Every structure is written in structure tokens, then in C-alpha cells.
Amino acid sequence: MVKKRIRDPEVLEDAPPAKTEAEDSGSDDDVDMVNVDFEWFNFKPDIDFHGVKNLLRQLFDVDSQLFDLSALTDLILSQPTVGSTVKVDGEDTDAYAFLTILNLHEHREMKVIKDLTAYLAQKSKSSQALAPLSSLLASSSQIGLVLAERLINVPSEISPPMYTMLIDEIEAAVEDKEPYEFTHYLIISKTYQEIASALDEEDAPRTKKSKGSKANRETFYFHPEDEVLQRHALASGSFEYTKDEGEGMADSKRAFSDMGIKPQGSMILIEAGNFEGAVKAIGKYLSPPQ
After folding, report:
1. Looking at beta carbons, which pairs linking 276-279 to residues 24 or more positions away fall under 8 Å?
2. Number of separate domains in the chain
3. How far is 261 from 273, CA to CA, in rounded Å?
4. How would residue 25 be classed by pLDDT, with cut points 50, 70 and 90?
5. Cross-strand pairs, 69
6. Which of 94, 133, 175, 263 has the fewest CB atoms below 10 angstroms from its CB?
7. Region Disordered: start and end of each range (predicted)?
């Protein structure tokens, strides 16, 4: 682990390696698994631009085209001692995951932050559950925007150390008089709902049963830690993507539809006083069994 400004690194535990095939031998289908060692690093602008940008594109899904992801990536990389990347083959390789935080008020004059803030404000008005966020975004509140994403096969157990390090780095930055003293934390993420599979409907259009009305569908989390975070939230909820355009959707979006999965955006707003408790709860929830 190569990290700066961690005052108490002993409290951080390495994420466990991915399960091997032998550990999963009880399953019906044989799945090839490999053991890998994950390492945490600070952001490196000369190495991490493309990897972080691709993860941002994955995080924002079809709506990623609404933002200047290059400018957003540059902003993230401009604060190298706040946030982390996770890699498996050393520091000079692409990130498998990242987590960072941006001060929306501090960077409010940047076009990409203006665009992103307007987008979040619009989405917050689409759901009563997200209503408290709308007024906060319109005020001078110090909101820390948490951005986190990982490749699909990366285990969720990497997230507790990343969040723990983030808290420590924020505390160190505040001691250094840097603008990281937040009133609220806003986590941007993704959820999904099960819908009728497009492939099944093609095979049996008249007999396929509905997965239920939109209002009654259960919401699932791409990131298991989000289920914990929302329990500590002042407000949380999912929203429809702007660029979800049916037949004109991206290939990745259509693939989800074919499998009967409808991705959505998600926001979780946590008051500053509750954030550390939420992070500790993530660690307990995702800790491997003893």
C-alpha cells in the first residue's frame, strides 16, 4: 500500500483476495477464479487518467455523455492525497477501482461542476425521497461529492479500507487548512430493478408475465456498501437516466435490458456527523467471516 497522509495505517486491513475455484466448489457451475492481491495508491495524473475516466463513464452509465469526463478526471487527479485507486499489478497500471471526494462549493465555477450540480439538482426533484438535496444544492452548503466505482469482478471487500482512508485523509486535509470541512456527504452510485427480459418477450410476447409495476419493483444495489450507507442517510433514492432512450440506447444498456435488468442512478445524502458511523458500519457488514 502506497498512501500519503495516513496517520494511523495500522487500523486498515487489506481486502481479502478473490475466492479460488476450490472455495467455490459447491456451486452447480464451475467458475474459474484467481487469487489477486489488491494494493491502494494515491492518484497519479500521468498514469491514472484513462483508467479513472473509464470508471467514471461506467459510474454515470448512459448519462456520462452529458459531462466533460476529461475535465472531471483532471479535477480528481489534481488532489492526489485525497482518495485512492486500487490496483493489482503495481502503481504504474490502470486502476481496478477508485474513490474520491470533491467539494462542490469550492469548485462551483468550473463548468463540469456546474453541469454536474445542475444534473443532481434536477434528479433530486424527481423523487420525494431526494427532496432535501434540492435546497442544499442551491445553498452555500459544503457538500462533499463522493465518487466511487470499480470493475465488475472486483470484490466489495475493498470498499471499507477505501472509505476508512478517505476519512483519515479528509481529517488531515482539514488540519492543513484545505477545503474539506463538509456539512454533508453526497454519494453518487447505481442501483437496478428487475424487469421483463427483452429476450424472453421476443420468445413469448403474449405469455410473458410482468415483473410488476414500476412503483412496486424492488431496488437492488450494484455496490453492497450502498445498502449500509443509505441506512445512515438524511435522504436517498434512485432516479431514471436522462439518456435512457429505448431503441437508441447504448449497447451496454441494451445488454442489461436483454437480461431483465434496468440500471438507475442513485444518490445517498449523509450529514457530516453521521458519515464516520456509516463507514464503520460498512466495515462490519463487509468483513469476511472469522
Report:
1. 276/167, 277/232, 278/228, 278/229, 278/231, 278/232, 279/160, 279/163, 279/164, 279/166, 279/167
2. 1
3. 35
4. very low
5. none
6. 175
7. 1-30
Spatial contact of 181 and 29, defined as CB atoms under 8 Å apart: no
Per-residue model confidence as pLDDT tens digits over 116-128:
999 999 999 988 9
Q: How many CB atoms lie within 10 A of CB 170?
A: 23
Asked if 252 contacts 199 with a C-beta cutoff of 8 angstroms, the reply is no
**Domain of 275: which CATH number?**
3.40.630
Whether 77 contacts 131, CB under 8 Å: no
Q: CB neighbours (10 Å) of residue 171?
A: 15
Reply yes or no on whether the pLDDT at 35 is more than 80: no
CA distances from 133 to 184, 237, 238 (A): 10, 11, 13
Q: What is the pTM of this model?
A: 0.82
Q: For residue 15, is it within any domain?
A: no
Q: How far apart are CA 165 and CA 156, in angstroms?
A: 16
Kindly report the backbone phi and psi dihedral angles of residue 190, in degrees, each rounded to the nearest multiple of 5, phi listed first: -140, 145
Determine, yes or no, domain membership for 2: no
273 neighbors 201 (Cβ within 8 angstroms): no
* Number of neighbours of residue 249 by Cβ within 10 angstroms: 17
Residue 26 within any structural domain of the chain: no
Evaluate whether 241 touches 263 at the Cβ level (below 8 Å).
yes
- For 212-271, write each residue's pLDDT tens digit: 555 567 889 999 999 999 999 999 999 999 987 654 344 445 455 556 788 999 999 999
